[in-house]
Amino acid sequence: MAVLVHLLSRALSTRSLRNAVDRHGIGAAQTFVPAFFSRMTTGGGVRFFGRTIKLRKRGLSAAYAALALAASVSCARADPATAAHLRDQALGDDTAWNILESLTTEIGPRPAGSPAAARARDWGVAKLTALGFSDVHAEPFAKAAWLRGAESAEITGPFAQKLAVIGLGGSIPTPAGGITAPVVVFASLAALLAAPADCCTGRIVLVNQPMTRTQDITGYASAVAARYAAPEAARRGAVAYLVRSISTATNRSPHAGATRPSRIPAAALGVPDAELLEHMAAHASSRGPVTVHLSLASHVENTTAWTVSGEIPGSDPKAGVIVIGGHVDSWDPGTGAIDDGAGVAITMAAAKLVAAAHPRRTIRVVLWGSEETNGSGDAYLAAHRSELDSIVLAGESDLGADNIFQLQLPAGAWAAPDIKPLEAILAPLKIMASPVPAEDGGSDIEAIHGAGVPVLALNQDASRYFDYHHSADDTLAIVDPLQLKQNVAAWAAALDILADSDYAFSRVNK
Ligand SMILES: [Zn+2]
Question: Is 211 a residue whose pLDDT tops 50?
């Protein structure tokens, strides 16, 4: 009996009692609780089956039965009223902003393997602990870190001008003293790929392909291949590779990013400087050949990176774990506010809100430690392979801090009766329920997704994201606090429903 009383009081003290009050008024709950206890202590037909309270209705008053039913439903299934409440609470909550301000101000740029990444690890452990997360710890993994040195580029002829340049991650350095060579410009990656094998001997290749602005990731997905094309230039005899920044902006900041290893050095130019070179080269016959001097220093260091995580323990240990998070590493020119301090802040703040509603499933917030130069997704799979069956769902926030416009769930999940109400809960946030199943939850969960973990995708509006992504302008100044809150509201409501739902998410066969 003591166990039953404990379980009952625990159930009533949290969501069930609040639901009884929401649905039937405080008076009903006040009469309900003592009646329930007296009924139980006289052995009048109250039983527990796991976490679900089932009542034999004979001999109970109609009101008692209705309240007991409300309690039983809410114990096992997601409650829309609670999720709506968390959504509204998030819209007035500054936690995500404060986390993001702290990370960008106290740590700043934090490439994996840099001294700042170790400080970001300590920051993550301290922040999760201060917010009340459990099992907070850092998971180390080996990292061959590419670390930037001094860089410069300038046009040396026919008209000398300085260029805004940034080396691409993974590029080899130039020889000491740099490389000076004539430039050949291609208007697109396709034009380079179509060029003959001897097109570029002894030259610096520039691919000046603009990027299309889109709300989703497709503009970036189609443009980014140019950043990886140094081996194609090398195959055609080039001595160095330059790419127009993968950017939708026209400001002069060059955008960093990883490239594919090649025997020639590779760097990105600011958009206006790539255009400047194209203009000069277009009139080379009358103005003279265009030559550029490029100097890039970098080194690779065998070191350690860390992924940090913490949990909101679920009330039912057998109900599994939902893994969410962002990546705490960043590129170095900015302070990593939208990529991806925002994802860290949004998911931490949302999980913290849901904690107060005592979720059934455990919610684990993960701060992956090497997304930009790869490694943290694979390391996470390697470290968690033995518990993959208990990870019921995963999601990553990694496309900035602007409004979410769409939620994708695993195939079939929207049809679950206790998940369906999420569509109406998200509608006031201008978020659509996408009928297209989630196939891509973020690069850090790609590996566990490939090993069977279903994913969700709260898709953010990326329309202006690529104006700043990987550039010196990725700072707190471009984060809109209202849109950041909308993100937290969406994650909190979705997490609350998904953590309490009794829907069994199917494993993925990839
Ligand atoms: Zn990112």
Answer: yes
